[in-house]
Amino acid sequence: MSEAVAPDAMVSPAVGVPYGEKAGGPVLDFSYVGIDAILEQMRRKAMKQGFELNIMVVGQSGLGKSTLMNTLFKSKVSRKSVLATAQEKIPKTIEIKSISHDIEEKGVRMKLTVIDTPGFGDQINNENCWQPIMKFINDQYEAYLQEEININRKKRIPDSRVHCCIYFIPPTGHCLRPLDVEFMRRLSKVVNIVPVIAKADTLTLEERDFFKKKIREELRANGIDVYPQKEFDEDAEDRMINEKIREMIPFAVVGSDQEYQVNGRRLLGRKTKWGTIEVENIAHCEFAYLRDLLIRTHMQNIKDITSSIHYEMYRVRRLNENNTVVAHTPPAPLQLTSTGCNSFAMTLPPLQPSTPSISQVG
Amino acid sequence: MNFVIIVISKLSDLQHYISCQGARAVPLAGHVGFDSMPDQLVNKSVNHGFCFNILCVGETGLGKSTLMDTLFNTKFEGEPTQHNQPGVTLKSNTYELQESNVRLKLTVVNTVGFGDQINKEDSYKSIVEFIDAQFEAYLQEELKIKRTLHSYHDTRIHACLYFIAPTGHSLKSLDLVTMKKLDSKVNIIPIVAKSDAISKSELAKFKIKITSELVSNGVQIYQFPTDDESVAEINSTMNSHLPFAVVGSTEEVKIGNKMVKARQYPWGTVQVENENHCDFVKLREMLIRVNMEDLREQTHTRHYELYRRCKLEEMGFKDTDPDSKPFSLQETYEAKRNEFMGELQKKEEEMRQMFVQRVKEKEAELKEAEKELHEKFDRLKKLHQDEKKKLEDKKKSLDDELNMFKQKKTAAELLQNQAQQAGGSTTLKRDKERKK
């Protein structure tokens, strides 16, 4: 309990500003009321409830998706670590595998769900390979919508909607492939897409910059809006921060879950004959930026955009498609026309017999 | 260690998976960084602002406005209400308060005229209607197709402070009835108003009486939550102090060398923020500093959900079981909508028919009128012609007379001339004689 801080001089009670009027200056509080304690209350509630995050990784096999997930969350969260498969077979069709983990850090509990898509882009004919993925994403929205519409609904609707989709671009160094463009074009409309250049240690810095520029141009040319989307910037500060990020996407990442000794410290990295690539060194690769974006700064924003924009769009679409468009053609309006000075003719189709007109009185 | 991997190929699988929640706990090998999540959440809320709505129910003159002023340390507008209101109305005012970086949109709703009428049977109705109207507005917004829940100004009542008059005996029947009607719709916090009118021993007895009456009548007042360890202790002690006995004051009095809010009497000064004098500090602590968020949450998850459930069931919606067709709400919506459109069309038809009928009648009337006018016109014309004829006859006869007269005149003149020539002298003579 805090004590009232009252200055010694005689103070006049402050005036509350009525909502809608902008009286000059902020409200003066000479004694502590305690409204800002609500921040602490919210924090407590959030810690008690825990958080949920659903990330989907999409990309051809062999691009290091599972490794990157493990690196991001510093634990064995990927499908490969959980599933001990004897042989790694490329599936004939795209499967969607979803694995959940409960992780905790400094008292903050999070339910992380990693959704893997083995088989994407691996067939000879990759037509419509985005369809199962889109269907999955829409199914999550559908499940949430159904629960929301229920009369007896749960206190906290379990959120399985895909918050973020990390798309892995193979490091060809040239430009985006048609598959990449198609996929990102379609999915950027329903989910937040974060494109990354996988296995970026195969590109030199110049090649990397060139590749990135090329990719950004192509994204712009095709009208693909990846996260952070320009149209959802809330204010100037947001825009500034997001512009910096937009200049850096796609992030060129390297993933590793093995530690090596570098300069006396144990760091995550990849050891090759010509050197050790440190994953968390921003001079080597941009993994740290990706991690900061996804986890440390923009996680709440990602979830908000998913729930308030993508989900709402889905909801509007879904609720509209069942409504028949009422072809409401109103009846022809009544016409009262006066012909001449002393007569009127009323027309009301189709029931009106013709009326005689009063002849001129001479 | 158990873990769950599910190949999702059907929606029903997914639902089953979600309900299983078979997630495994995984230890972290280093600092990932999602411990900043609560901060991110709090920052977002700070940018967005908070809103809190308090309803003050109590008879006129119990110090509701003063208590609000004291609680939030500002002078809200408004003048004291008169005692001659014909019914209970609710007046709501919204204010923007700011403390450090927290912006709060506070709405204070006052019951004007509560307890002033001679017949108080319907006093609670306007309050219940008001609370329901706020729920309804939120429900409408939630059911809209294109909705903006994110920026919606939530007007649902989060806390209801019920002011009990400091009689020292027991609750009035009006209080019991009103609280009973409100307890399933809003979080009720009963407080004893103007408690400087009661002595300490009477107050203790009064509080016990009130609590026992509430319990025996089954009134559910808001209990401060005791499930979170950090606040469980303080909340449970506060629960035992309900109802809070408060004193409100915005005037400052110098005590020692500090200016404190107090009420000054000839026999002493009641300090508002002194815990030995009244429970104001406890109320402020519970209402604002510790449980504001919980009050909002209870309103949303308990009272609003209850209202929503009742309203939707009333409208005829029902949850179907998982096997039957999904989206029952949509179907019922559809059916209702078709019904409604059918009714509308029928009504439209009816109106059209009526309109046509009216038009016909009017037309017939007009025709009648026209006919009459025609007849009148004919009659007038005939009259006119008759008149004309008469006049012409008369003229003719007059002309004839005139002619005859002329003839006579000429004949007379002729005679006169002849007579003159014959006896012209005689006339002269006669004239001369006349002259003499």
For the structure shown, list the relevant keywords:
heterodimer; A: 362 residues; alpha/beta; 6-stranded mixed β-sheet; 3-stranded antiparallel β-sheet; 13 strands; 19% strand; disordered C terminus; B: 436 residues; 15% strand; elongated; Septin (chain B); P-loop_NTPase (chain B)
Total count of helical runs of at least 4 residues of chain A: 9
Mean pLDDT value of chain A: 76
Strand order of the largest sheet of chain A: 4-5-3-6-7-8
How would a crystallographer describe the biggest sheet of chain B? 6 strands, mixed
Strand content of chain B: 5-15%
Global Rg of chain A: 30 Å
Tell me the series of helices and strands of chain A, N- to C-terminal: EEHEHHEEHEHEHHEEEEHHEE
Helix count, DSSP H or I runs of 4 or more residues of chain B? 11
Secondary structural class of chain B: alpha/beta
Biggest interface, chains and residues, is: A-B, 105 and 112 residues
Structural class of chain A: alpha/beta
Main beta sheet of chain A:
6 strands, mixed
**How many beta-strand elements of chain B?**
12
Poorly predicted tracts of residues of chain A: 1-30, 324-362
Question: How confident overall, as mean pLDDT of chain B?
Answer: 83
Shape of chain B: elongated
Organism (chain B): Sander lucioperca (Pike-perch)
Family (chain B): Belongs to the TRAFAC class TrmE-Era-EngA-EngB-Septin-like GTPase superfamily. Septin GTPase family.
Domain Septin-type G (chain B): 48-314
Keywords (chain B): Coiled coil, GTP-binding, Nucleotide-binding
Protein model, in words:
- The complex is a heterodimer of chains A (362) and B (436).
- Chain A has helices spanning 37-49, 65-73, 79-82, 130-149, 178-187, 205-221, 236-246, 287-297, 299-321; strands spanning 14-15, 17-18, 51-58, 97-105, 108-116, 164-169, 192-197, 251-252, 259-262, 265-272, 275-278, 335-339, 343-347.
- With 362 residues, chain A is of the alpha/beta class.
- In chain A, the strands form three sheets. Chain A has a six-stranded mixed beta sheet with strand order 4-5-3-6-7-8, with helices on both faces. In chain A, strands 9-10-11 form a three-stranded antiparallel beta sheet, with no helix packed on it. A two-stranded antiparallel sheet of chain A has the order 12-13.
- In chain A, strand 10 and strand 11 form a beta hairpin.
- Chain A is globular and about 60 Å long.
- Chain A starts with 13 loop residues before the first strand and ends in a 15-residue tail after the last strand.
- Chain B is 53% helix and 15% strand.
- Chain B is built from eleven helices and twelve strands.
- In chain B, a hairpin with a 2-residue loop joins strand 5 (89-99) and strand 6.
- In chain B, helix 4 runs parallel beside helix 5 and helix 8 packs across helix 9.
- Chain B starts with 5 loop residues before the first strand and ends with a helix.
- Residues 8-21 and 320-327 of chain B have low confidence and may be disordered.
- The interface between A and B is large, with 105 and 112 residues.
- Strand 1 of chain A pairs parallel with strand 4 of chain B.
- Chain B: Keywords: Coiled coil, GTP-binding, Nucleotide-binding.
- Chain B: One of its GO terms (molecular function) is GTP binding.
- Chain B: Belongs to the TRAFAC class TrmE-Era-EngA-EngB-Septin-like GTPase superfamily. Septin GTPase family.
